[in-house]
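Checklist before submission:
- one chain only
- standard amino acids only
- sequence pasted in full

Submission:
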Amino acid sequence: MARLPTTTDVFNAVGEPHRREILELLAQRERSVTELVELLGIRQPQVSKHLHVLKAVGLVSVRVSGKQRLYSLNGDCLKPIHDWVKTFERFWVESLDRLADYVVEVQAQEASKSRPPD
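Returned file contents:
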């Protein structure tokens, strides 16, 4: 199966760690490219390239304010990822429930070992 281009698929777009960092920063508030460069510690052309990809898939939008371009998150476009991850929620809930049961069992065993005999 051919892989979709990064600029047309939300899953591919967020597959890159710097893009995920950008999304996390934009989830807090809108930011300029300069601010993102400072926070990420990568060069401006790289940040601009990542923003271009994120904008192409609809995850970010840009607003011009004077000489600045301010980028903000379009969280609704993350819904396909949320919906996909949600399919695994039952697995995690069941796993955590089993872990909680195991911890209670181990604690009960430890408590019975530490009690003096009657």
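Reviewer check: Helices lie at 10-13, 17-28, 33-40, 44-56, 79-86, 89-114.
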